[in-house]
Design goal:
The protein has 188 residues and is α/β, with parallel strands linked by helices. Helix content is 34%, strand content 14%. The strands form 2 sheets. The protein has a 6-stranded parallel β-sheet. The protein has a two-stranded antiparallel sheet with strand order 2-3. Bound molecules: magnesium ion.
């Protein structure tokens, strides 16, 4: 199998930076977790309870997901992998209870990676049901109904997921991903 599954938010689309820009604009005097102090995949949980609805409102706003900037190095790496013959598929879970998130994500793929990537994208709330050689994702725990997914979970390295959660964590930067494309080995 040469299907590579790649998550979207926090891996190819820069969720955090867009959040910070909108939060500062909306609530210039409000408490903020500075980018280098971010810990844990779930941003909401790092804010005090009384601010969590406000945090959520920022990314629940229509247009938030369309506005995300690409993560540095991501688009180039995916294009290189596709050109090398890999079946590269963006595999993403749309935000729960969000009316336009899935549509915005497909639009984003059209704009930044082209219609072929948009066409191959997999939108699912359960990534364990999808087959692939690996799943590159910034989330450390991927749960679903299938206890034995076919993919190997590789954590995309970010500042907020460096706290080890799993016993045998494998983490990559885009440089490591490109190393895999060059050598075919998951142990660059
Ligand atoms: Mg993600």
């Amino acid at each position: 199998m040469n299907t590579l599954l790649v998550d979207m938010d926090g891996v190819i689309a820069d969720f955090e930076t867009e959040f910070y820009e909108r939060w500062r604009r909306r609530y210039p005097d409000e408490y903020i977790v500075e980018p280098d102090a971010r810990r844990g995949w779930n941003m909401e949980l790092q804010y005090p309870e009384h601010l969590r609805t406000q945090v959520r409102d920022v990314y629940m706003e229509p247009g938030f997901f369309s506005s995300l900037k690409p993560v540095a190095g991501a688009l180039e790496a995916l294009n290189v992998a596709a050109a090398a013959g890999f079946d590269v598929r963006v595999c993403t879970a749309p935000m729960k209870h969000h009316r336009t998130c899935a549509q915005e994500k497909i639009g984003w793929l059209h704009d930044h990676l082209g219609s072929d990537f948009a066409h191959r994208a997999i939108i699912t709330r359960d990534k364990t049901l999808i087959h692939g050689l690996f799943l590159l994702d910034d989330r450390q725990i991927i749960e679903g109904v299938n206890q034995r997914p076919t993919w190997r979970h590789i954590i995309f390295d970010t500042i907020y997921n460096r706290e080890p959660v799993l016993a045998h964590e494998k983490r990559w930067t885009w440089e490591d991903f490109r190393g895999f494309v060059r050598t075919g080995s998951m142990e660059p």
